[in-house]
Amino acid sequence: MAAAPLRVGLAGLGSMGRNHLRHLSSREGCALAAVADPAPDVLADAVAKTGAAGFADAFAMVVDAEIDAVVIAAPTTAHARLTLAAIERGLPVLVEKPLAATVEEGIELVTAARARGIPLQVGHVERFNPAVLELGRRLAQGWIGTIFSIASRRAGPFPARIRDVGVTIDLATHDADILSWVAGERPTRVYAEIAQRVHAGHEDLLFGLLHFPSGATGMLDVNWLTPAKRRQLSVVGEEGMFELDYLTQRLTFTSADVGSPTIIDGYATTFEGNVVVIEVASREPLAAELDAFLAVARAGGRPVVDGEDGLWALAIASGLLQAAGEARPVDLADLAARISAR
């Protein structure tokens, strides 16, 4: 006899929530049982399309709906309350990044999930990007040897929907997580510069530096000011360089053996190693992320991106904001001690 479908609730039908809605309403072995959003028209449309029970109050859905697991795509400031309610009810939970609005809230969620043995997954969807996964495989095989630097660029126009946090907490948490994952370690020191140009209440530009124990350096360029969307990553090591485009899922490797110089315009010389385009089997990262969450919700185990990963991404982003505000590097040793003690 086939197992009964996993009944899932979805809290939040904004931009990311609608993407979750699209997948959850069609995944095999999953039944979208409840949806929640305060906007009546948006909620009514989702209910009509899916047949799910509708809730105007997301907290009421988490507490009262007949569900086996929950996806939280509500505004960042609501993450802690909704996620904690799900944990207390014993529901496996996927909460969109960032894990919470503050490190203190994040620690509370991770502590509660560990105490109850509840799977807590954080929606760092880039970890499921096929190009990122292929990059990870090549790094594990030693393609570039020792990593020297990791640089990310995450830029685009200002999203008017984001009002509760700035670009660092909303977007740079992606890159804080990816750079740590690529390096295979957490940074010990961070520094940053920020600016507020168009956002009404928060920073919309961040340049950040991360120092890793191995000596590798990370760089983040994150903003809501660039008129075209850019999502790029480069990893430089002793044997060459990987360059990745998250949007096109294109991954290239340039060897460190630069060979003979190339002449440009008859006078300027440049050196470049052989460039190889690495084949990547394209897939929508969100679909892979949800499949991973549903598997853990059914069978248990540790999520691919768990609460501690999400907490560290939030902590690094918070450290970057502190560094910018105080105009000095910020050591993360005390923070690491707080997190490891939980």
Report on this model:
The chain is an alpha/beta fold. It has 2 domains: 6-124 and 286-306, Rossmann fold; 127-282 and 315-340, Dihydrodipicolinate Reductase, domain 2, CATH 3.30.360.10. Helix content is 36%, strand content 26%. It has 10 helices and 17 strands. It has helices at 15-24, 40-50, 58-64, 79-89, 103-116, 130-140, 167-183, 285-299, 307-326, 333-340, and strands at residues 6-11, 30-36, 53-55, 69-72, 93-96, 120-123, 147-155, 189-195, 205-211, 217-223, 230-237, 240-245, 250-255, 262-264, 268-270, 275-278, 330-331. The strands form 3 sheets. A 9-stranded mixed sheet has the order 16-13-12-11-7-10-9-8-17. Strand 14 and strand 15 (268-270) form a beta hairpin. Helix 3 runs parallel beside helix 4 and helix 7 packs across helix 9 (307-326). The radius of gyration is 21 Å and the shape is globular.
Q: Which ranges are low-confidence, i.e. pLDDT below 50, for 5 or more consecutive residues?
A: none
Strand order of the largest sheet: 16-13-12-11-7-10-9-8-17
Q: How many E strands?
A: 17
- Give helix % range: 25-40%
Oligomeric state of shown chains: single chain
Topology order in helix (H) and strand (E) letters:
EHEHEHEHEHEHEHEEEEEEEEEHHEH
CATH class of the largest domain: Alpha Beta
Give the number of helices. Answer: 10
Query: Whole-Å distance between the termini?
Result: 41 Å
Mean pLDDT: 93
Strand content: 25-35%
CATH-defined architecture of the largest domain? 2-Layer Sandwich
Note the overall shape: globular
The figure for the number of domains is 2
| The CATH fourth-level homologous superfamily of the largest domain | Dihydrodipicolinate Reductase, domain 2
